[in-house]
Queue: 4 jobs
Job 1
Amino acid sequence: MKVSIIVAVATNNAIGKDNDLLWHLPADMKYFKEITNGHHILTGRKNYESIPEKFRPLPNRTNIVITRNKNYQAPGAYVFAAIQEGISFAEKNGETELFIIGGGEIYRQCIEQNLVRKIYLTRVHQNFEADTFFPELDENYWQITAENFKEKDEKNKIDCTFLELEKIR
Ligand SMILES: NC(=O)c1ccc[n+]([C@@H]2O[C@H](COP(=O)([O-])OP(=O)(O)OC[C@H]3O[C@@H](n4cnc5c(N)ncnc54)[C@H](OP(=O)(O)O)[C@@H]3O)[C@@H](O)[C@H]2O)c1
């Protein structure tokens, strides 16, 4: 099973503030939905709670929530106490590509622990003030394999680039 990250990252690597996203980009939300549709997704407890209640668990996807709280309840989702437990669950379920959907703490650990082979990274071409950041990627280890620029428009007010990066060593 492949383990992938999907994330949207500002020019200054910002990804969130006050447990919320920093921008409204319907094109990126649509991309996220298309890429993750039908798959297992793994999220940290804080990111899960940042999704409005009526939209969670995210439909058409098996939602895995990671928390150290043994009594945590997330109706309709699967709760585990460690990232590796969530990954093993998806693998046992026959998943081919599991998506790590954040937030910052979970992304960082997955990269540091070398759990991820692919990153679907939407570069949002603007700087943002933030309290949560995506880790700096070492270019010696990550190669861009796809790149698709999307110019800002009426509904998406910031230029962005949809990138795919693969771990090369
Ligand atoms: N731009 C993007 O694409 C994007 C995507 C996702 C999220 N975000 C943003 O990221 C922010 C949230 O990220 P965050 O770093 O604050 O939180 P997070 O990574 O979503 O969740 C952190 C929580 O996950 C649990 N956790 C983390 N590591 C664990 C481990 N090894 N074992 C067990 N449980 C573990 C803990 O839950 P407990 O405290 O319950 O134990 C911890 O408090 C928000 O602002 C959100 O909007 C942005």
Job 2
Amino acid sequence: MNTTYQPEHEETLDPEDWDLARGLGHRMIDDLIDYWKTVRDRPVWKRPPDEVKARFHEPLPEKPQGMQQAYRDFQDLVLPYPKGNIHPSFWGWVDGTGTVFGAFAEMLAAGMNSNLGVADHSAVYVERQVISWSKEMLGFPGTASGILTSGASEANLIGLLVARNSVANTDVGNYGMGNAEGRLTLYGSTESHSSLIKAADILGLGKEAFRKVPVNENFQIDLGALRAAIVRDREQGHVPFCIVGNAGTVNTGAIDPLDELAELARAEKLWFHIDGAFGALAALLPEYENKIRGLSKADSLAFDFHKWLYVPYEAACVLVRDAEKHHHALAVSADYLNPQARGMAAGPEPLSNYGIQLSRGFKALKVWLSLKEHGIDKYRRLIRQNIHQARYLGSLVEASQKLELLAPVSLNIVCYRYNPGGFDEDALNRLNQTLLAELQERGIAAPSYTVINGRFAIRVANTNHRSRREDFHRLVQASLAIGEAILCARPAEAVV
Ligand SMILES: Cc1ncc(COP(=O)(O)O)c(C=O)c1O
């Protein structure tokens, strides 16, 4: 190891040969275009083989391998074994599909390598415009504030942080939770996303402070049970501070009665936060206006761009109705960050005063360019297409004697199972776990799973702009064929 500094041999990480870099860059784009164009011809998912996994134990490179070799390693070890979420038959978790132009935008953003924490530069204005457009899309007032985040998990955390610091009876922002009078509690349905529970923990409230309220047969929060839980907590000296509404639950896509929740929160003087990770963007559709009307009444709203706006990972947003409260909860004065009268730091309010990160990437560019590329009406059509495809799948399931729908299809999620009759619940759970694994391992389709009323469900969440009706038809055919094959090859006792 050379430890001497040699001024006559100063170095840089820029390429020695710019033409070589240009050629490789062009090749990478050509390779990606081919990769995208042929995605339908490949299996949805392929497990990385052991010999490939072993390569990830190679030691830290001491000597240069060069761009070309490094790229070859990417081609051999990384690119062939993706999660599969750019594939038309991927419907697992709530993974977004990404877009071609969105990927180009990521390259441009990385090329600029903008850091959006502080200072007056173009990228900050792009993000501010994306926040303004988001307010417009989701019915928030122009005076509201917002910030782009890594995902809805972080957006939920920020929403709940502002809620906690704004509503708490004592100044927990400055003096910590130990200073709060009484236990702060918040409320959401049993279907609320795990990120909200995690946020309660991170905020020092404790996971148990998130009161899980039962749901009705449509998986929407039970308003009576919610009211009773608030009363019960107050009677015990606790301090309810926030109601969380779901605009699209992760399990089934259920939309809570947001209007009623907004009203209740107002009457009880509680903060109203909405987790609209994917469902919020259904508000773009006039036909969902009634169902999702309460969205614009939230004090804070979390939603993702990387799910139902289809942009590549990562990009989400939190909007907060009262910009001052948002700022108060997250701005910290520091000599090296405070605005200056002139120069680079004389720009707009630093975005970092509204979020957790100081250094922040240029996530906004892919959203900004995508909205310009397609216009919002195209997104309306695609979201509508995904909802109709989900309904189509739901109708195929219902029409089949051997498949069973496990929850109403209220948005873009379908939960079903293979149930030919004659099996108990445990056997059906195991049968469907095997069926799902077969679908995934054979690369046919990639739904994920959940448990609905104790029943293992094959769960299809459709935020995929590449899917076609025929893909859902094929999923149903494959589910039936594999279900039958499992039973033939392995009689009931083997499954049980
Ligand atoms: C309803 C809901 N909320 C929150 C999240 C978390 O979002 P992210 O994965 O972007 O952090 C998800 C993710 O699927 C979700 O479905």
Job 3
Amino acid sequence: MASAPNPALSPAPEEWPEELMNLGREAEAAGREQEEAALADFAQDSALNWLFVDLNSYFASCEQEARPELRGRPVGVVPMMADTTCCIAASYEAKAFGVRTGTIVADAKRMCPEIVLVEARHELYIDFHHRIVEAVESCVPVTAVCSIDEMACRLIGRERPLLAAIDLGMRVKQTIREHVGPMLRSSVGLATNRYLAKIASDMEKPDGLVALPLDILPEALGQLTLRDLPGIGARTEKRLNEKGLHTMNDLLALDCEQAGEIWGSVWGQRLWHWLRGEDFEMAELEHQKSISHSHVLAPEMRTPDAAWAVAHKLIHKAAMRLRSKGLWASNIGLAIGFAAPRSENTPVSRFGVPARGWRSEIKLHECQDNQTLIAALRRLWDSQPKGAQYQHPYFIGVQLNNLIPDRLHTLALFDGLEEEQSRTRLLATMDQINDKYGMSTLAPAAMLTAWKAAPTRIAFHSIPDLF
Ligand SMILES: [Mg+2]
């Protein structure tokens, strides 16, 4: 973060009536109509739509709140007591020594010999989380819980003018301290869209309150570095540098089309609009809602066993795609088309096969792992109609529905579900390896059985639409 004085509005509301008055005076000279127009413009430019709350050094602050003997001391929160692990949070006292999230414990001890290492207690942080959300809710409705220590609130009506929004921001901070605990300090950002409000919350830490109304936006953003923007990590920064973009002003000088080209996706264009303060909903609300894969079976494959192997294969493929997009499924559907004997008077499908169709779906706890999905698929499979007309499946479709992005799943994931966490890690590793070396390199034992069962003509090794 740039350390130069920031033009963003830190809480100094007493300056603002003065500005309003100056604006009023100028306008008065120009006539009443213009005065009204000028004031309306000012109100428009200074109105804010989002308040973003980010707790400071969250895990370490929870520990300092719960254990007063840790207050004022450098604290490092670690997943386990081992020199080889890394800090997952550091108190501000530890940050003063250069200890951060990700610092290896052995290094942290060297940098700050006084550091007190504390084993992470996720239940405690979740408990505080609920109390913080409640405290914020008592001031303004929480629109979205973005992570365990971040919340976004949409402002409406009388909350939107600059002074009112700053006032609300101060009240939010104070309410958290009073109702949850004095160690729980937060940084509040106010802006016209959620993306900028998050940036604003990052501009002053700890215990900040920063507003970015439209009229100061270009100047305020110009002070940031590319890496200060959410979504720009080391890799993207490198890519931007290679394209000749080194500063925020370089980025801000692009037109919308250029921004789109540089990212090679709609993301660049969205970013362009967000950086200009436009308020429209973020990508997470536009995430993909379902993933489906289907396969028409060759005539010799139209047996229940071969069809199951294909269904199994399709769910594996859908699950890989689900994880690669950072999504979680909460519903699974199975569709089967059955070829009927020619003599029967049944509709002819577009595949030229006389057919009857069947489809069913079941709800799931949010998941993205093969094991859960395969078990659910099996339940669906076993519920398909029985009888002579249902012996020749020729079409299989699987669908994952009601998808939820990682961001919204985080809390459940965090909720002490260690088993799920390790399963998630394992699958991520498998996906990486499969992505690199071909799909059958690593697979759960159940999958291997299905692969063996399936006739060789199914191209298990080439999944052209996967990535
Ligand atoms: Mg935070």
Job 4
Amino acid sequence: MLRDIKADLAIIGDGVAALALAYLAAQRDIRTVMLGKNFHGTTHSATGLIAPRPDYLLADEELVRRTAFECLRWIRLFYPQILSPQRFLIPIGPELPYSVRTFRTLLSRYDEIAKIRSTGLGSHYIINQANLEKMEPNLRKSDIDGAISFGEWTVDPSILLKKLGWETSVYPDLVKKFHISDFREFKIRNGMIEEIRALDAGHKAINISNNRGPLVVVNATGPWMKDVCARLGVVMEYQLKAGVQIEVPGYFFQSGIVTFDSDGKYLVCLQKKGILQVGPTNTDFSGHPDNFIPSDRETEYLTAALRNILGDKRLSPYSFLKHGFRIKPTAIDTNRPVIWNHGNAGLHNLYSLHPGKMALALLAGDEMLDRAISDGWLSKPRVVVTNRLYLDGNRKWFNEAKLLLLKIWALFKMGLFYLKFISKTP
Ligand SMILES: Cc1cc2nc3c(=O)[nH]c(=O)nc-3n(C[C@H](O)[C@H](O)[C@H](O)COP(=O)(O)OP(=O)(O)OC[C@H]3O[C@@H](n4cnc5c(N)ncnc54)[C@H](O)[C@@H]3O)c2cc1C
């Protein structure tokens, strides 16, 4: 059976960028179709920080400030259900790439700039050696002189995806989601994608077009963006950095631990139920994302970093947990959301969207919609939103009529009372 779907916006992908965009589009009353594939993307491999990150301060202070605000948006949406505040410790030992004073200066500025998201997190502080030993008895005791403590918000990325998925399900008339097995055809006319033809997971045909105006097509397929563009004859440039995480069975730490390798690269140890997640790595990868195989070198590098901070160096057999890819646009070095418009390649209504990081997916979605509006493809949000449930149960006229009847009845009763009263007065 052919499904002929009318939509204003077609989103290709189903990671955090795609879901956040669909969620925001539904709030603006935009008919949206999401076409995902049934495999895990990078979001599933994220560490799980919803954080502005102090290490971004030197490169882009404005981004840190804005990300703090974005954290607040996530908190308002999903705290306390799936977001939790987490304490992180940076052990003060020889692996610190900078002096404690430098870290404190950086974190003081961070506390100030990222304050807006810090309810429940507090400011950074120093923990002395004796207290650290009590708090984290599994850390090595020799040459660790205490720790710098700071707070961040964390989330399980897979649960964040599920939750965003549910949020979009609240708008069944506006957001339609499909898992596709492949595209069949993109119908292009006058430099515009007019129709997308795809096969769903059960190999049934789906046709997507817009009966009101031009269709906006957003490619939010993360590391696979080049593939979708290539299918349309568009060349896209970015580099991939592979990030691997491992899991080690056991309970090691109460807090998250941030440690550094010999090159000064940070690694996060995040305690979960029964396992410790350690990572990520960050290595250049020039191949296709489907062909990435984590090497023993990467897992050994992560276990070596963990062994280094542990008192007891023996570890239970660890295993590879997950991997993902950071996207580095070649045109500009940034961690901000990036929107590519492929008008130069002849497809004016095609965009590719990368959020920069999971924490910025809502910002990326808003910026994408604003861009599509300013390019003239989508109309400005209408003030009247249909099917919204109001406090009066959407029965304004019925309630007003009922109120009028009650008022008439009250007047009638008052009249009766008055008549009885005057008939009894001598
Ligand atoms: C190791 C690592 C750790 C990270 N940790 C953090 C962190 O702690 N906090 C943070 O904020 N950010 C973090 N990031 C960054 C963050 O994970 C990414 O920026 C974000 O997840 C990218 O989301 P996305 O939706 O663009 O891509 P993805 O999550 O990769 O989604 C793309 C989706 O597209 C689908 N797809 C692929 N091809 C097709 C196709 N042809 N048709 C339809 N669908 C298709 C895939 O199935 C996939 O689900 C981390 C990144 C890495 C690599």
